[in-house]
Design goal:
Layout: H1 5-11, H2 15-25, H3 31-40, H4 43-46, H5 51-54, E1 64-66, E2 74-79, E3 82-90, H6 92-97, H7 99-115, E4 120-130, H8 136-156, E5 160-167, E6 176-186, E7 201-206, H9 216-220, H10 240-253, E8 259-264, H11 269-281, E9 284-288, H12 301-306, E10 312-317, H13 322-331, E11 336-343, E12 347-352, E13 355-361, H14 362-365, H15 379-386, H16 429-437, H17 445-448, E14 459-461, E15 468-471, E16 478-484, H18 487-492, H19 494-511, E17 515-524, H20 531-551, E18 555-561, E19 565-566, E20 569-570, E21 574-583, E22 600-604, H21 618-624, H22 635-650, E23 656-659, H23 664-674, E24 693-695, H24 704-709, E25 716-720, H25 725-734, E26 739-745, E27 749-752, E28 756-759, H26 760-774
Helix pairs in contact: 7-8, 7-10, 8-10, 16-26, 19-20, 19-22, 22-25, 23-26
Length: 781
């Protein structure tokens, strides 16, 4: 019987896709089969709008052991017999509906992806985007998401070591919650998600199966909310304590020879886990849904196959070893059950007892149609790109509501009302304080302090810097981790914005002294069926691919999250890039804070004092209510800057390094002053709360606002001891890269020409408390 439109809507299939299924299958699918097709042909599982574009990304490299798309996560060799598994995924739609559980189960899912590879999870990072904090709902979502991440990750005993948090109007109804996990394993012990060997057994272990999460893949992840509001119930519920038991049991199991394959039950649940594992092996599976342990009565085969209940793993057990495996799980207090077997015939045969309720060739289920669409640029974006930013007055913006009283200086976050409390000169000082207190730039300490980032005792550099650093115990090595992305840049120039996301992630890893070796990405976009959104998706991926090629860094894993929009208004196109770098000697890592009075400060890379560097900047958005311009990057310059920085670090010349990006040069210098606290006191050196900066004479800028707050790419602020300035400049000339001597570390104020003269204490207050101030009711004067 042909499916009606309501049934197709339920499984997120179009009439054309349904007809294709009928044509390939040679008959009408039944309800269970249709549900399986809907899940596996969804964007979340089948990548039908994005797979043709993802092929543009370079995925191979000398150290790559498992490439993107092959398994649950990518794996790279880091030497000394160790490898790192890495993956980032989204849980955007569930987090918009139920922030705590949406974020918590996002963490649970990405952790299972990692230990399914046989890797022990050693770190988490998160990339989060929310609407403006002056809206109560956005504050509620922020609080719920952060609590969910902390509640799940802390219970698992996995440190959350970094990430990013941003706020833009475009994420008002569609927050982004991207979770990254890395795991450590021995090179020769990679576990595969494969259902190999006919006769081997399929065992389900962990939580019992319930009705939560049904249509998560085909509904929440593949459509917009307003299309089908009933899907708001398709949010999973997590149990981190059960996941911890599952993690430890699987870590013990992968050391045995009883195991053939291991796969987590995430999107599309049992359907995806079994069918995709069979597809990798070229085999088939036979499943008896009546053998699946359940926590709800009266569940149908359709519900059992599509449930996305959390904390479940599919274990492919070598026949004859099932009692050993069952005993292992019993010892961890875990419920396990044999639910089927691997068969030679490449079919997914689903039974309820002796009754066959579905039978479909595996290849049909895992071969969805691929759509190559024609994208067009939004004419409105073209107008924003061509806006002449040189017409913006090059003068300090006037504060909204007038100058703040001294006692209220720390509370005026709404607009440009942050002014120094102490004695100060410099017309641009208030603007700098406003940017430091802006939620996108201010310290995220109030978020990070909810996470345990020291558990496992591997964390050398925790959240808040350019990248986290972890030691690899038993070796001198360390790894660096970061996530980066900027939706504004991609919105204004998708190709360049995609390239800049890759470049910044790699640059941040370089800033801590690590060599970038691998990337993972999460591509967050609106509805790809709209030509303007598809244009953004295609161009951003092309830009990312070009940056990967120039910087010679492969993408080893990733995730695509589309349909992030409400009422036809899409989020900013937001590719998030996670980067992994290697430090041969973790003891030689670098941090951003100034270290010693008298150190010389340099900017390597372009000065960026032209109007074009204001494109998409925090300064334009915060001080002129404007998102406009055309961001640009010279990838060859970027590569040289990173090479020069690493070369200088390897020679022991660099004392501190900090990416100059969001907020521009003045903000980067202020952050270096404030973050000096991390290094102080040092023997025979100053012991103040922070360290100031006094600028040398700078070149006369084309524009003062661009010099101070422009966000030109490919720039790093470095410090060196005075006796090493000649050696540093020789390295920079040899590569070559442009550089500018900026001044000297010292005192307790930031002094930059005639423009800024502010006590470090004022900088620290604005930066430290800006995010908290933004969540409080506004004061008006």
């Amino acid at each position: 019987m042909p499916a009606d439109q309501s049934l197709l809507d339920e499984v997120a299939l179009t009439p054309e896709e349904y007809q294709l299924i009928v044509q390939r299958l040679g008959r009408e699918p039944n309800t269970v089969e249709l549900g399986m097709f809907g899940s596996l042909w969804s964007e979340h599982c089948g990548y039908k709008n994005s797979k043709p574009l993802l092929g543009l990304l370079p995925t191979e490299g000398e150290q790559v052991l498992v490439r993107a798309g092959q398994e649950n996560a990518g794996v790279v060799d880091i030497g000394d017999g160790f490898a790192i598994a890495m993956k980032i995924e989204s849980h955007n739609h569930p987090s918009a509906i139920e922030p705590y559980q949406g974020a918590a189960t996002g963490v649970g899912g990405i952790v299972r992806d990692i230990f399914a590879m046989g890797a022990r999870p050693i770190a988490l990072l998160n990339s989060l985007r929310f609407g403006p904090l002056d809206e109560a709902r956005n504050r509620y979502i922020l609080g719920g998401v952060v609590a969910g991440i902390a509640g799940y990750g802390n219970c698992l005993g996995i440190p959350n070591v970094g990430g990013e948090v941003a706020f833009e109007p475009g994420y008002e109804d569609n927050p982004l919650v991207n979770a990254l996990c890395v795991g450590l394993l021995s090179q020769g012990r990679i576990t595969r998600a494969t259902a190999a060997g006919p006769g081997n057994l399929l065992m389900l272990v962990g939580a019992d199966t319930g009705r939560d999460g049904i249509h998560g893949a085909s509904g929440l992840a593949s459509r917009t909310f307003e299309e089908h509001p009933e899907l708001r119930s398709a949010v999973q519920v997590g149990n981190p304590f059960l996941e911890k038991q599952l993690l430890e049991a699987c870590m013990e199991l992968v050391q045995t020879d009883w195991l053939v394959g291991l796969q987590d039950l995430g999107a599309a649940g049992l359907t995806s886990a079994t069918v995709e594992s069979a597809a990798r092996a070229g085999t088939g599976v036979e499943i008896d849904v009546s053998a699946v342990p359940r926590r709800a009565t009266g569940m149908t085969p359709y519900e059992v196959m599509l449930s996305e209940s959390q904390e479940r793993m599919l274990v492919v057990v070598r026949r004859g070893c099932e009692e050993h495996v069952r005993t292992l799980f019993d010892n961890f207090g875990l419920h396990s059950a044999i639910v089927g077997q691997v068969i030679a015939e490449p079919l997914a045969r689903i039974k309820e007892g002796e009754h066959v309720v579905a039978e479909v060739p595996v290849k049909l289920l895992t071969d969805p149609p691929q759509y190559r669409r024609h994208g067009v640029i939004d004419p409105q974006i073209e107008l924003l790109q061509e806006l002449d930013l040189s017409q913006i007055p090059d003068a300090p913006p006037k504060p909204k509501g007038g100058r703040q009283k001294a006692e209220d200086a720390g509370a005026a976050v709404g607009g440009y009302g942050i002014w120094p409390r102490g004695e100060s000169t410099g017309a641009w000082g208030g603007t700098l304080l406003t940017l430091l207190a802006a939620p996108n730039i201010a310290s995220k300490r109030s978020v990070f302090r909810q996470y345990d980032h020291q558990v496992l005792t591997n964390t050398v550099v925790g959240p808040g810097g350019d990248a986290a650093v972890l030691r690899i115990k038993g070796t001198p090595k360390g790894v660096a981790l970061t996530t980066d992305g900027n939706g504004r840049w991609v919105y204004l120039n998708p190709f360049v914005g995609g390239a800049m996301a890759v470049a910044e992630a790699a640059r941040n890893v370089v800033c801590v002294g690590a060599r970038p070796v691998a990337l993972t990405d999460c591509l967050n976009f609106g509805n790809p069926e709209r030509a303007e959104v598809y244009y953004q998706l295609e161009q951003a991926i092309r830009g990312m691919a070009e940056a990967c090629r120039v910087l010679k860094i492969p993408v080893i894993s990733g995730n695509v999250s589309l349909y992030n929009e409400t009422a036809g208004h899409a989020i900013y196109p937001t590719p998030v890039v996670g980067a992994l770098g290697i430090l041969e000697d973790v003891a030689r890592h670098i941090t951003p804070g100034f270290k010693t009075e008298g150190d010389f400060v340099y900017l390597i890379g372009p000065l960026g004092d032209h109007a074009g560097s204001l494109a998409g900047s925090e300064y334009l958005a915060a001080c002129h209510d404007l998102v406009a311009g055309k961001p640009a990057i010279d990838l060859d310059m970027e590569a040289r800057v990173q090479v020069a920085c690493l070369e200088a670090m390897e020679r022991g010349l660099i004392r501190s390094a900090h990416d100059c990006s969001h907020g521009g040069l003045a903000v980067a210098l202020a952050e270096c002053c404030v973050m000096a606290r991390e290094a102080l006191p040092e023997p025979q050196e100053t012991s103040t709360a922070g360290l100031g900066f006094v600028a040398a004479p700078w070149p006369q800028p084309t524009r003062v606002d661009a010099l101070l707050f422009g966000e030109a790419s490919s720039r790093i602020v470095l410090t060196v001891r005075p006796e090493n300035t000649g050696a540093l400049e020789a390295v920079l000339r040899d590569v070559p890269v442009p550089f500018t001597p900026l001044g000297v570390v010292g005192g307790d104020r930031l002094v930059a020409g005639p423009w800024i003269d502010i006590p470090v204490a004022d900088l620290e207050e604005a930066w430290s408390y800006g995010l908290e101030w933004a969540q409080q009711p506004r004061r008006h004067t």
